[in-house]
Predict the structure.
Amino acid sequence: MATTTKQAGDAAEDRALAHLRTAGLRLVSRNYRTPGRGGGEVDLILRAPDGTLVFVEVRQRASRAFGGAAASVSAAKRRRIVFAARHYLMRLAAMPPCRFDVVVLEGDTIEWLRAAFDAS
């Protein structure tokens, strides 16, 4: 039976989450979306042991061809992630330290890019 894009994405997020949990991060939210059309989504929001709130984009590709998974996080995608992160942070009483990470899955390889981009 063929795997849907949604199933493949969920499996990639599961792998990324397991990897991050082994590094001591704790899941806060998964697939956080802003309301309405044209908003953004954050695949995983985790809390690092030092209290930093980590917004994680998970990207999967079969290979590094065409720049690989990391290159697929375009400027437009980063803007949507930052938009969703700001929306999420508005709900909090105090602003924690934050960062934006990307977890790249290519074949059997997993790579965690800490502070892959910033909110500017």
Q: What stands out?
A: Residues 5-22 form the longest helix (18 residues). The mean pLDDT is 88.
